[in-house]
Amino acid sequence: MKLTILFDNVPHREEMTPLWGFACWVEPEKEEPWLFDTGSNGRVLLKNASIAGVELNRAKELVLSHPHWDHVGGLDTVLELVPSIRLYLTESFSKLWIRDLERLSGGVTVVGEKPMPLFDGVESTGMMAEIGEQSVLIRSAAGPVLLTGCAHAGIVEIAARATEMAGEPLALVMGGFHLFRSEEWEIEETIEGLVALGVRQVCPTHCTGERATEMFRTAFGEDCLQGGVGAVVEI
Q: Could you tell me the pTM of the whole model?
């Protein structure tokens, strides 16, 4: 499986534009590719995708983690490009917005608080935290992968739920860990929690923060993978 970060405030490839937000292109081993979140700006999403050689119009599914601007800002652009795309949202999106999106897309699946399957090899953790954010568990040949938008519920809590869903330790936890405002002791507890769950690799980016990312590098060594816009993770 190949994961390409198309939108991120963390720089990686010089020719790509970093802006606050997150979006990831997922290419499974056998199934069709799909998009997770859209970042905060559609024009930048399209530009970065073009540089990465990603054809967004191939996507048949788009999973949106939560309705914060830095994860849904490119949604209109994606819908213009792929009006037939199916959306996977949470109940934390407004009912009026969901109604409109049903008319503008190839259909909408609304996720509640309980974990549920979305499409081939992909499951939602269900809404977590007060804002109603979902993360996704992806089945891969190398083991289960957890992809997060901002991890508002706490990355350890999300990883624990995903581990229970998978029935085995996670091969990779990737995305925003929401530690950019956290104290050092909080970051240390987070790292210890993921290690205790048996997480093999991490790829912290977006809202994780520079200090937390460096601490993850120290703790996980080579198993802390490089994030940032344009980064490619193969597992």
A: 0.98
